[in-house]
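Continuing from the previous page of notes. For each protein in this section, the sequence appears first, followed by its structure tokens. Read the first protein now.
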Amino acid sequence: MTGKSEKIKSKMGKLIKNDFLASARVIPFFYLVLIAAMAAFLIGTKTNNNKLLAIGMAVSTVVSILLIFVTFFFVVYDFYKSLFTQQGYLSFSLPVTSRQLLGSKMIVYGLWMILSYAVFLGVIWYMSNYLQEDIIGEETMNTADVFLTMFNLPTKSQIIIYATYIILFFFILVLTFISMIYFSISASHMRAFQKANLFWAIVIFVALFIVMTVAINLLEKAFVVNLIFYGDKNTPSIVFGYDNYAGTSFSLIPLIFFTVLNIVLFFLTADIMHKRINIK
């Protein structure tokens, strides 16, 4: 049992290494551009060069946003290229399981997505912190926080927690779309859909999206799990069921649903890759 487990780990490790090396040829270029833009921004802050500062801030923000979309495009394109073109014959001839093939790509591409997302958040946080401390001023921010509390609006700490929830939700949503695209591409290469696989990939994705949307709506009507703030409390509470005294709230049902859906789609996609696809 130990020898078999070590072989599986060894094969998985090689897959992850190869997928990482393949992806590392393209994506790092955008990080170099971002590093150059951030360097220009930092030089502008140190030398009081407002023009250089503004250019660095603008380019850093735009590139950090583009980085997410570029990474998203690459993880979809490379999945298709490495598994469902002529290169797919080599990939599927490797002495590994379909779950290992898919798992390796999900791990590597997932890490790239996490990195690009973390870089984006880091840039936005750094820029916001700079604006808050050096442009707006801490005293003004404290006054604004008091003003928000007086009128029963979300405080600064509550807004941070709201933002954290939205950031997490967006990331899970992006991963879900990637899982849906992987499933659609794989299913479209089944023998029944092979002659027009691009058309069927779109049809399957749209159908899956509709089913997902309907399922979320039905689940939110059947079950209520909310993240809620009470009054001026800065810490949220998770409430099962309706609460008439609650303040601002977010439903946790979509977050839970997307997490489960990602797991289900992984196994369904791996099963299709193992038994049902027909590579041209």
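Done with the first. The second protein uses the same format. Note its length before scrolling.
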Amino acid sequence: MKTTTLLLTPLVIMVGLATQSMATEESNITTGSTLGYYSKPGAAIDMTFTSTNVQSNETSDVNITLITTAPSGTIQVGFSFDENLTQISSVEENLSFQISPQQKEYPINLQVASQKDGLYYIRLLTQVNGKMRSFAIPITVGKPVAKTKSKNIMKAMNGENISVSKAIETITVLDEE
């Protein structure tokens, strides 16, 4: 009995330590996906992402995968970063991907950093064959501080908060007969 206990104790301790280190590594990563959730009708694009939670002045790796069901066309992507969030890697502000039937996933790898703790967002405005969809990817730096009232929030007449976002609108004039 003592021999079995002596042999199994180090094994149990090692398994426990390995499990604890895996949990620590996993909690340091934020993941998200729009797959399986409501999407704008006609916008044939979804997104998954992973980002590392870092301390201030450290670099966070952000891996974004755009997924489309469109058989052909072009994916156009525009980026914007929250104030105090700096892009470290050299990815163009406006990207485009040519869609091919053999490829449905289009990866984008970024690196960002901030000198201040907080919860920041990378915003993507995507367009696939004329249909637009926007995404926001959270980036955690240090311990996020509670944000004060945002300058982009307005109040409706009934007191409900309204978020004002950047958008592109196309107006077509139909000929009258």
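What the second structure shows: The chain has a mean pLDDT of 77. Helices lie at 2-27. We return to this in next week's lecture.
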